[in-house]
Write a sequence for this structure.
């Protein structure tokens, strides 16, 4: 069932071309990485009772396994460094950022996907992800690969709240919701999978107008979270998306270097999200909204990889490392690197587990300490 862009600024008109190109499979970006090593004191000492997640493949732990879409990674070589060497639907060789933060605050070492039937409300009580690989702020972005739009993730969250109240009682559930860390990690797909790939949005809006449109959706979503009792929220920024392996591979004219225009858009949009954070912190009593920006630490890793123990930044570990992700990684598995820790990127759009940890540690130390 389709629904209007209820979480957005005014709805845009026109049908969208849903054709899939190689860039369409950009699904699936990484925006927010948070990891806090050495500070875990155990669950009893945790100041965060639960980690609740919304977003795309950067934080999807397998929800897409249970919907009809090609945006999946529940097969080898994905997950080869995850517990038991199992491909769960995480777009990584190992854990994703939300798994790290859950463990960092003294909770379980991974966050389960809400649609995974192996789990129930007792598992979700301390952490859950509603994220869907290939989605974005814009409903048209989720339509490209038929994944879960942001408005539907909000509906799942409401359902989760009702189940939580039935599980632990009204008072305790409300306290958990108020004290839980709510994480938002999305945005790159709106540009790389939608705006710059499919005719439609780019004919209606300039890049700056589209940024404003997306920021309006983010604002409305945060206001809805606040209305449902959320008070601790982390709004994730965009990475230097022009430096993703696929973008470099296709930048032939630019000598396969990073695409400056895409990085400029990321910086511009991040500034708007930062201003939004400041605005809402002033307007909404009791909210603690943090802007988590991974851009500069990722840029530093990419430009000075040796400082972090990496050997490759322009190509990824999976297959040839230039354009593969998802099923293309599976088809080219025999060419996949033997040691992912030497690579910044796992596939053409997603970082390795090691990169996630480095970026996450930076974000937590510089932004999220107020929650811990």
């Amino acid at each position: 069932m389709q629904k209007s862009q209820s979480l957005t600024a005014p709805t845009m008109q026109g049908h969208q071309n849903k054709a899939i190109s190689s860039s369409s499979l950009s699904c699936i970006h990484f925006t927010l990485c948070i990891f806090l090593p050495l500070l875990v004191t155990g669950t009893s000492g945790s100041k965060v009772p639960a980690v609740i997640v919304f977003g795309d493949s950067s934080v999807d732990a397998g929800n897409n396994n249970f919907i009809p879409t090609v945006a999946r990674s529940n097969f080898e070589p994905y997950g080869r460094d995850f517990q038991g060497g199992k491909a769960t639907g995480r777009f990584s060789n190992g854990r994703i950022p939300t798994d790290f933060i859950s463990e960092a605050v003294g909770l379980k070492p991974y966050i389960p996907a809400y649609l995974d039937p192996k789990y129930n409300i007792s598992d979700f009580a301390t952490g859950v992800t509603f994220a869907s690989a290939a989605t974005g702020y814009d409903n048209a972005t989720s339509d490209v690969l038929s994944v879960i739009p942001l408005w539907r993730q909000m509906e799942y969250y409401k359902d989760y709240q009702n189940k939580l109240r039935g599980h632990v009682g009204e008072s305790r559930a409300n306290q958990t919701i108020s004290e839980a860390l709510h994480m938002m990690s999305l945005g790159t797909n709106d540009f790389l999978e939608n705006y710059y790939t499919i005719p439609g949005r780019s004919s209606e809006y300039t890049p700056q107008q589209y940024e404003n449109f997306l920021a309006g959706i983010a604002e409305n979503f945060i206001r809805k979270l606040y209305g449902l009792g959320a008070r601790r929220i982390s709004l994730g920024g965009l990475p230097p998306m022009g430096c993703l392996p696929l973008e470099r591979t296709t930048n032939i004219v630019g000598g396969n270097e990073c695409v400056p225009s895409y990085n400029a858009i990321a910086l511009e949009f991040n500034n708007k999200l930062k201003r939004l954070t400041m605005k809402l912190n002033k307007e909404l009593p009791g909210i603690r909204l943090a802007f988590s920006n991974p851009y500069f630490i990722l840029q530093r890793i990419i430009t000075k990889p040796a400082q972090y123990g990496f050997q490759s930044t322009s190509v990824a570990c999976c297959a040839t490392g230039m354009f593969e992700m998802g099923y293309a990684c599976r088809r080219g598995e025999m060419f996949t690197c033997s040691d992912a820790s030497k690579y910044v990127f796992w596939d053409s759009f997603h970082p390795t587990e090691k990169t996630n940890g480095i970026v996450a540690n930076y974000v937590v130390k510089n932004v999220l300490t107020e929650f811990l």
Q: What stands out?
A: Residues 6-44 have pLDDT under 50 and may be disordered. The domain at 23-241+259-295+354-371 is CATH 3.40.50 (Rossmann fold).
